[in-house]
Amino acid sequence: MSQFSPAPLGADLPPQVAGSQDVAAGGLGQQIDLRRIYSAFRRRLRLFGAVALAVFVAVVVVTLQATPKYTATANVLLDTRKEKVSDVQEVLSGLPADSATVDTEVEILKSRQLAERVTKALDLEADPEFNSRVHKPEGLAAVTASIGAILGATPPSEVKLSPLGQQKLHEKVVDTVLSGLSVKRSGLTYVINVAYQSQSPQKAATIANKFAELYLLEQLEAKFDATQQANKWLSSRLEELRGQVLQDEATVQQYKIANNLLSASGTSLTEQEISSYNQSLAQARAQVAEDNARLNTAKQQLARGSNGGDVGEALDSPVIQQLRAQRAQVSGQVADLAGRYGDRHPEMLKAKRQLSDIDAQIQQEIQRIVSNLQAKAQVSSQRASAVAGSLGGAKGALATNNRASVKLNELERNAEASRTLYESYLNRFKETSSQQGIEQSDARVVSKAKIPTKQSSPNVSLNLALGVLLAIGAGLGAIVLAEMLDAGVATAEDVERRLETAYLGSIPLLNSVADANGEAPIDYIVSKPLSSFSESFRNLRASIVYSRLGEPVKIVAVTSSLPGEGKTTTSVCLARSSALQGLRTVIVDCDLRRRTVNRLLKTEPVIGLLEVLSGEHTLDEALTFDEASGASFLPLAKSNFTPKDVFGTVAMDRLLEQLRSRYDLVILDTAPLLPIADTRVLAPKADAVVFLARWRKTPQHAIEAAFRLLQGSGAHLAGVALTQVDMKQQAKYGYGDPGYYYAEYKKYYVS
Predict the structure, then answer these.
(1) 3-state SS track over 509-560
(2) What's this model's pTM, rounded to 2 decimal places?
(3) CA within 20 to 30 Å of 402's CA: 232, 281, 295, 394, which one?
(4) How far is CA 175 from the centre of its chain?
(5) What residue spans of 304-345 are helical by DSSP H?
(6) pLDDT reading at 468 higher than 90
(7) Which residue pairs from 514-518 have beta carbons closer than 8 angstroms and sit at least 24 positions apart in sequence?
(8) For residue 148, what pLDDT is reported?
(9) How many Cβ atoms are within 10 Å of 517's Cβ, its own excluded?
């Protein structure tokens, strides 16, 4: 396309420079053109009004036909302050006071499980508002039901459902119940608003209160179930731990017995025995020392010549004391008898013999005492040795017991751990058992739902306001959609911006600029040469002439992308307008299939273009002179269509050169580009190609497809001209377009 299309403005500039030019030229104003928006709105005003009115009427009808509904609201507070009956840790702790917890409880209130409980508690499956099966038919439905009953048809409410059908019906009822529920948090507080909307104000209040009531009950049940499950688990666990404790303690006792580790008062018997042996040994050794000391003392006294009377045991002996008393008495008698009778007196001798006997007895007693001391010392020593031996045996047994105590300590620790764990579980079991019956809900109802006195839905004033906004939005949306779907080209700006080619002018629809009274456009241009319709063709010719600066433009090919876009009418009008201005003009009909020029001129020639190209006739024999305007026509004769390529021949080139030399303007009325290939062959032979597009009808993609066909052919595209333009509508299309000012300059022309 770049080979025959002028580059858009600013295409050769760097992006920074082009962007700065855009900002300097208007910045945001170029991106958002309020005049263009207003023009689009103005030309689509009828569409906007129709869509807006339809939407508003629909809103009004829906509002008036809607069933009145009432909304009741109960307020539930998540209570962070709770009564503390006992200082016992709860099984299921209370809810933390944070925002996430409140949002979670809101979702619980909206849960399906809670809705099912409310449905069951209030038997909403039997309510016609929630169950369509029990809804009594009204109007036409009631008549139909009556006819069905007469014909013996079973009413829908009496049709027995399968288990799956009953489940689906139940789920549908629960869905309906949930659809009327609205739960939301009140700002950033701990208050949750539970609102319910129903057709009955009493029912709305009842259901809202039931949701709040069952929500609190569900919290209590959750805590009760948690406590009950904890008690059940603790009870079974206690039985296991009790058995474990008994087993561990029995193992300890059996090990003690097996390893002689019996104890009393916290001390093993071996340790008690060693302690006793130590005491006995100390006493025995002390006794040995004492007995040896007495014996040694007695021996020392006897060794020093003592008769033993001064030995401590002798002094303490009652026998010796008695004998000494007797000796003292006998000694007294001896002294008395010595003084009276002398030494040889029989009584004296008798007394002396008694005294000697007593002394002998004393000596014997002393010897016995000393012998007794020796025996006691020997016995004490033996006793001490025996105690020391027993102590050594006990110490050996203690060493053995100590080695066995290592395992005993492990067994005792296991038993103690089992006992401690058992006691902790037992205490927790007693605590949780005491909690049953004193569970508290984490929330409370601060305000029960009251029976509403006015309906909440539909809100007529709000619906009407929303209806107005929706209508305006729908109307604007329809305009936007229509503009987006409008693929046609309407203004000079569309041609230059969207097609990136030159705009040659607009050919108005005759009825939009003048009252032609049924006169054909090709005739009107002759009868009204000073009209705005005629002026449009003069403008078109001027645009064509100056489409190639510095080069003459004599041969002009007129084409389009699709049929029916006014090529022949434009060609004939352009030829007559040029001829009326004194230019030697000829129009050549190059549409071999339709021969539209003949139909417009209402002639049926015998000699035409093909006969000239074949050499059967001369050019002058084929030309037809238009007496009304002075233009010449080279038509196509009837029934002379040929599938051969006649336009790519040398004969066609010679004909065009001959026409160029004889006429100031040669107009080639060609076939449309998309369906016919002839135009692609003929277009490069013309000085300029005028591309026609029907105003708002020819799709942009069709024009672009035609442009692609012309690429590489060497044809010079002069630009695009819009045909069949409704100037009254064109005035609504865009600020800056020539048609926008039609109302200002139409009086300048003669009708």
Answers:
(1) CHHHHCCCCCCCHHHHHHHCCCCHHHHHHHHHHHHHHCCCCCCCCCEEEEEE
(2) 0.51
(3) 281
(4) 23
(5) 312-316, 318-340
(6) yes
(7) 514/751, 515/751
(8) 56
(9) 6
pLDDT by residue (tens digit) across 224-267?
777 777 778 878 888 888 888 888 888 878 887 777 666 655 55
Q: 10 Å Cβ neighbour count for 350?
A: 14
Alpha-carbon Rg of the chain, whole angstroms? 67
Amino acid at position 125, single letter: E
Q: Which two tokens stand for residue 583?
A: 């230019």
Indicate the domain borders of the chain: 1-32, 33-66+460-484, 70-230+442-447, 273-410, 489-745
Query: Does the pLDDT of residue 743 top 60, yes or no?
Result: no
Query: What is the average pLDDT across 310-314?
Result: 60
Spatial separation of the C-alpha atoms in residues 506 and 521, rounded to whole Å: 14
3-state helix, strand, coil in the chain (%, to 5): 60, 10, 30
pLDDT at 701 over 70: yes
Give the Cβ contact number of residue 68 at 10 Å.
Answer: 11
Model confidence pLDDT, tens digit, residues 19-40 = 333 433 344 444 566 777 777 7
- Distance between CA 514 and CA 31 in Å, rounded? 37
List, for residues 360-416, the tens digit of each pLDDT value. Answer: 887 787 778 778 878 888 888 888 888 788 777 767 766 666 676 677 778 878 888
| DSSP codes of every residue in 126-150 | G-TTT-GGGPPP-THHHHHHHHHHH
Crossing angle of helices 201-258 and 112-122, rounded to 10°: 120
What are the structure tokens assigned to 671, written together?
Answer: 């076939």
Residue 229, CA distances (Å) to 114, 206, 222 in order: 22, 33, 10
Residue 5: pLDDT above 80?
A: no
What single-letter amino acid sits at 529?
A: P
**What are the backbone angles phi and psi of residue 739, rounded to the nearest 5°?**
-65, -20
Q: How far apart are CA 307 and CA 330, in angstroms?
A: 19
Running DSSP on this structure, what letter comes out for residue 68? P
Convert 1-21 to b/e letters by CB count within 10 Å (16 or more is b): eeebbeeeeeeeeeeeeeeee
Query: Which residue from 668, 727, 260 is spatially nearest to 514, judged by alpha carbons?
Result: 727
Check residue 268 and give its pLDDT. 60
Burial of 254 (0-12, 13-18, 19+ CB in 10 A): exposed
Q: How far is CA 668 from CA 130, 582, 592, in A?
A: 77, 19, 12
β-partners of residue 508 are: 725
> Nearest Cα to 567, choosing from 494, 515, 507?
507
Helices (H), 436-509: 460-485, 492-498
Question: What is the enclosing helix (H) or strand (E) of 634?
Answer: strand 632-634
* Residue 231: Cβ-neighbour burial (10 angstroms; 0-12, 13-18, 19+): middle
Residues 92-111 have pLDDT tens digits of 445 566 788 888 889 999 99
For the record, the structure tokens of 612 come out as 């000239």
Superfamily of domain 489-745: P-loop containing nucleotide triphosphate hydrolases (3.40.50.300)
Mean residue pLDDT of the chain comes to: 80
Contact between 43 and 732 under an 8 Å Cβ cutoff? The reply is yes
Pairwise CA distance, residues 339 & 157, whole Å? 162
Say what the pLDDT of residue 312 is. 59
The partner residues of 71 in beta bridges, in order of sequence, read: 197
